[in-house]
Amino acid sequence: MDRPSHLSVVIDLDPSRWDTLNLSLFLSHLLGFFNAHVAAKHENTLAVFGAFPAKSVMLYSSSDPIAEIPPNDANSYPPFKLVDSTVVNRIARELELIADDDLDAPVALVGALTKALCYINRLTVEANAATTSSTDQSLEPVALPDPRILIVSVSPDITSSYIPVMNSIFSAQKLKVTIDACQISGPENVFLQQATHLTGGSFIYAERQDALLQYLIMALLSPPSVRRTIAVPTQDKIDFRATCFCHKNIVDIGFVCSVCLSIFCQPVPVCSTCRTKFPIKTLQKLNSSRPPLPQSNSSRAPTPSSSSARPSTTPRPPATPPTGSDQRHLPRSVVNGHAP
Amino acid sequence: MAPPKHDDFMDMASDSDNSFDEGLQRKGKGKSKSTDKRKKDQNKRKPKDVQAYTWEASYTRSWEAVREDEAGSLQHAVEDYVARGRRKRLQDPSTAIRRTIIRHLVLVLDLSASMLDRDMRPTRFSLTLQYAREFVLEWFDQNPLGQMGVVGMRAGVGERIGSMTGNPQDVLKAISDRHKLEPSGDTSLQNAVEMARNSMNHLPTHSSREIVIIFGSLTTVDPGNIHETLEECIKSKIRISMVALAAEMKICRDLCVKTGGQFGVALNEGHFKDLLFELVPPPAQRSLSRAAGAGATTTSANLMLMGFPTRLPGASPPSLCVCHSDLKSDGFLCPRCLAKVCDVPTDCDICGLMIVSSPHLARSYHHLFPVKPYVAVESLDESSPTCCGCARPFPTVVSQTVTEGVSPIGRYRCPDCRQDFCSDCDVFIHDVLHCCPACGK
């Protein structure tokens, strides 16, 4: 660790998951990890973002001045104390502000992730402005070594946010940001797996929640430049499944419009995105060759005609929670209707 | 005419250096005034000559744009550039338009003796190769499902340099060895276009077919009537775009205009690159239909069945792949028949399913769902103290100079979620991120 590194942490703070999860234990593990990062090198920078239901907040950043400085405590190291108390106080305050109707809303993980990217972009621009005074080089991200984002996730995929997540992944690639993910409970998060794979980070599924700090320290504390020399555990399989645009289901075989590459889970006569009409022959062919849909999907999904008659050109986010949650738990062979 | 011009430019360079230094600020200002006057004099004397050459004109414009404010800072000049970018972006339609995303392109390189001309540094040939490599990388970055082939025009024939492939490394390899591409002889436009056309004949109709020609010669030596080739290209809906390095030729412009492509003559090295890179983003489909008349509206779009595979790690137990029968650990599992293939995108050898990696598809989605342009906030009422994206504190003083499209208080507001963003975030969100942090759409 010869060079300072920047770490942005995105914490998934979904209150509905806390019946199975101990929040205070979870936070104490995380704070221990933050302190380890701050202690690893004096110049290390840290930013913490919280994803709450329907909103995302920056909880702490080491570059912005802190409003309230905690009273000195003889038993704690002041920089640690600063991080800990700021993060805990902000989380408590934001949780109080959540309205009751928002409690069931999906967690704004994308908002927190994009804010983290904006923040890293700002650091990059500022670092460039400081080192090179010429304005025309400010777009080259050179001066900030090894920025990385750690996503601590407790919830399953939010299927309606597939496109924003993918856009964030591509901008992370452009900024040369590594995305790590640590998932603590629930089914494996397909989008986070893709994010870590595409940006060269590691995906850790913490099977034992009481050992969270150990997972974090062993696998995710080292900056990406060091990871080449130490064997960091990575995920084994990467699932490249995508979300369909029509019902926000996660599909592994989809019907794709050749013009705009929109993905649909069943043959549709008209593309809802670019309004291309597909030849009727193709539809008949695809319908006949299509594997039979599982019962859970066909009973719940609207008919293709109703989805194509929708007037808007962009798919709206569904008002109800995404429908694909049951399907995801099924083994893949059942979803296809194909036993291998 | 030329020497004072040169002086102006030198002054400008030193000014912009000085303005970062508070101590030298007055000196810089004095200079800028005097040079302003000198320029006015020139304008009076020879108003037409000032705009004579494009490169001179662009110097004049940038000189006018970079101007210090009362405090000697260049901030407004910088903001002005940002504003210009914003305005350019506002002109783009924010609604979804139809673009051809599965593209097939043949890059035709002129390898005739005229490419040894030194009017572009170091030579036209070296520069073309260098830009062609950058073009290939950028093109595959933005069109991950596209395929590209390379054809050379040398010694009066068309020469296949690289066949159609979806792998940028293969294309780069084909044009990496400059000794194999050493220019000689004459150019034959017809031979090269015919060769490119034949290599795209078998393609499905829903994909786009394009030819991009970098043309350095002023002649073409053809075995037959090139206008027949042009008719054939129109019939098979091939779009020809061309960047000429020497001068405009009637037949070149005809080829481009009649097939719905773009034609440009490079003025200098930078302009050459601009012209070439304008061909990178996927073309909107309406221009194709306009060029080819009413018949093209039936460009058969199709619904394709695609599978999204699971990638096996390098540590998994080795098994035979179905494409090469090699024993290896990593690979991709076809979601339908669970056969293992080496690489994507490909067609499964067992069940014929088209296997693509979903991130490849997702790379183009920002074209479909662009972020709405943010509105420049004019007044300080009900605005938050920090940027919603990067938490940078906003300036609280209202700046005096008013430019269209630039907020005097540095705030840009999303029309949907009413959150404010700083200008850096505004540019970043619209150019890179393609997703509003506050409303997530």
UniProtKB/TrEMBL annotation, chain A:
GO terms for cellular component: transcription factor TFIIH core complex; transcription factor TFIIH holo complex. GO terms for molecular function: zinc ion binding. Residues 285-340 are annotated as: Disordered. InterPro entries: TFIIH_Tfb4/GTF2H3 (IPR004600), vWFA_dom_sf (IPR036465). Keywords: DNA damage, DNA repair, Metal-binding, Nucleus, Transcription, Transcription regulation, Zinc, Zinc-finger. It comes from the Eukaryota. Residues 298-313 have a biased composition (Low complexity). It is found in: Nucleus. The keyword Endoplasmic reticulum does not apply. One of its GO terms (biological process) is regulation of DNA-templated transcription. Component of the general transcription and DNA repair factor IIH (TFIIH) core complex, which is involved in general and transcription-coupled nucleotide excision repair (NER) of damaged DNA and, when complexed to TFIIK, in RNA transcription by RNA polymerase II. In NER, TFIIH acts by opening DNA around the lesion to allow the excision of the damaged oligonucleotide and its replacement by a new DNA fragment. In transcription, TFIIH has an essential role in transcription initiation. Belongs to the TFB4 family. Component of the 7-subunit TFIIH core complex composed of XPB/SSL2, XPD/RAD3, SSL1, TFB1, TFB2, TFB4 and TFB5, which is active in NER. The core complex associates with the 3-subunit CTD-kinase module TFIIK composed of CCL1, KIN28 and TFB3 to form the 10-subunit holoenzyme (holo-TFIIH) active in transcription. This is General transcription and DNA repair factor IIH subunit TFB4. It comes from Marasmius oreades (fairy-ring Marasmius). The lineage of its organism: Eukaryota, Fungi, Dikarya, Basidiomycota, Agaricomycotina.
From TrEMBL, chain B:
GO terms for cellular component: transcription factor TFIIH core complex; transcription factor TFIIH holo complex. Its main location: nucleus. This is General transcription and DNA repair factor IIH. A zinc finger (C4-type) spans 334-351. Keywords: DNA damage, DNA repair, Metal-binding, Nucleus, Transcription, Transcription regulation, Zinc, Zinc-finger. One of its GO terms (molecular function) is zinc ion binding. Transmembrane segments: none annotated.
